[in-house]
C-alpha cells in the first residue's frame, strides 16, 4: 500500500516537474548543466509563473535522451530502466537526507549562538561580584585648598613683572633714546 502511494507521489512530481536545483541534485550535475540540457532538448521542461518571476520546472518523467540513446544502453534494456528508476529513487532519498542534514546543521548553529549569548550573560552577571572581591575600596580624592581662579589671573602678576622688566632693560640699553 505504501509503495502505491509512494509511486503516485512520484508520478505527480513528474507531471508537475521539479525545480532546476532539485533536478540537478537528482541527476547528479550542476544547475547550469541542467539548463544546457534543456536548451539542447535532452531534458523536457516548462516555464512556470513563480512568486518572484518565471521559473523552470523540469519534467523528469521523461528520461533524458542522453540516458536512453542506443549507443549508451546495453542490450538488456528492461533491467537498465529498472536500475535507472532505482538510482533515481536513491538520489531522491540522498537529496532528502542532505536537506535534512542542512536543516539540522542550521539548528545546531542557532543553538550554539544561543548558548554563547547565555554564557556571556552569565559572565557579565558574575563579573561585578569577582571584581568587588579582588579590588580594594576606592580612595576618595584629596581636597585641595587652592582657589578655583582662572589661570590667567594667577599668572597676571608674573606676566606684568616680566613686561615691566623688559621695558626697563630696553630703555637702558637702547641708544639714542631721550631720557
Walk me through this protein's architecture.
- With 179 residues, the protein is mainly α.
- It has 5 helices and 2 strands, in the order αααββαα.
- The chain has a domain at 2-109.
- The protein has a two-stranded antiparallel sheet with strand order 1-2.
- Strand 1 and strand 2 form a beta hairpin.
- The radius of gyration is 44 Å and the shape is elongated.
Features:
single chain, 179 residues, 5 helices, 8% strand, disordered N terminus
Give the beta-strand count. Answer: 2
Rounded to the nearest angstrom, the distance between the terminal CA atoms is: 132 Å
Main sheet specs: 2 strands, antiparallel
The poorly predicted ranges are 1-14, 64-77
* Element-level helix/strand string: HHHEEHH
Q: What does this entry show, briefly?
A:
This protein has 179 residues and is mainly alpha-helical.
Tell me the layout of helices and strands.
Elements: H1 2-16, H2 20-27, H3 31-40, E1 44-50, E2 53-59, H4 77-134, H5 151-173
Helix pairs in contact: 2-3, 2-4
